[in-house]
């Protein structure tokens, strides 16, 4: 196909025989956090599906909702959502052991999801027992250990 553009510029498309590889999704994040409803890890394909499955009234699960909404608003296609168990509620009294066990349980539930390539925990600082950087670092270390173990398996 050829066509001309003023002033006398000609463009001609010539097939090189090389076919390009179409873009493909390269990662699937897992969002772990506090939700109005609990369940097993769920593959979510849109913001509407997240709202239907996990959102609560009056901004419950606000940090997780904002993170997932931002993901889809910026072109995200699919993600897993892993609610933390009922033992972890924002602002509830508890210690770091409660949050550690809840996070271990969530990571265990994601073990059979090999397509998960990143972990997002927007509620980390709202979890019981997280009162300073040291307590938050304990949970971050748990996440890092999980990721390192997953990399060794690959």
Tag the structure with descriptive keywords:
single chain, alpha/beta, 6 strands, two-stranded antiparallel sheet, 154 residues, elongated, 4 helices, four-stranded mixed β-sheet
Assign the structural class, choosing from mainly alpha, mainly beta, alpha/beta, alpha+beta, or little secondary structure.
alpha/beta
- Give the integer mean of the pLDDT values: 81
Classify the helix fraction into a percent range.
25-40%
N-to-C SSE series?
A: EEEEHHEHEH
State the end-to-end CA separation.
Answer: 47 Å
What does this structure look like?
By secondary structure, this protein is an alpha/beta fold. Helix content is 36%, strand content 18%. It has helices at 47-54, 62-73, 96-109, 133-153, and strands at residues 2-5, 9-12, 28-33, 42-44, 79-83, 116-120. Helix 3 packs parallel to helix 4 (133-153). The mean pLDDT is 81.
How do you describe this structure in short?
The protein is α/β, with parallel strands linked by helices. Helix content is 36%, strand content 18%.
Write the layout of secondary structure elements.
Blueprint: E1 2-5, E2 9-12, E3 28-33, E4 42-44, H1 47-54, H2 62-73, E5 79-83, H3 96-109, E6 116-120, H4 133-153
Parallel strand pairs: 3-5, 3-6
Antiparallel strand pairs: 1-2, 4-5
Helix pairs in contact: 3-4
């Amino acid at each position: 196909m050829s066509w001309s553009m003023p002033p006398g510029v000609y463009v001609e498309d010539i097939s090189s025989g090389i076919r390009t590889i179409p873009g493909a999704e390269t990662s699937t994040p897992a969002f772990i956090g506090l939700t109005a409803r609990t369940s097993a890890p769920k593959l979510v394909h849109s913001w509407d599906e997240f709202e239907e499955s996990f959102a609560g009234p009056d901004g419950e699960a606000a940090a997780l909702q904002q993170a997932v909404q931002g993901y889809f608003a910026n072109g995200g296609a699919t993600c897993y959502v892993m609610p933390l168990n009922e033992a972890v509620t924002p602002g509830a009294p508890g210690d770091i052991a409660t949050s550690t066990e809840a996070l271990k349980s969530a990571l265990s539930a994601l073990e059979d999801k090999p397509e998960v390539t990143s972990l997002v925990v927007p509620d980390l600082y709202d979890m019981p027992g997280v009162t300073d950087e040291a307590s938050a670092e304990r949970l971050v270390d748990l996440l890092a250990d999980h990721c390192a173990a997953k990399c060794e398996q690959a």
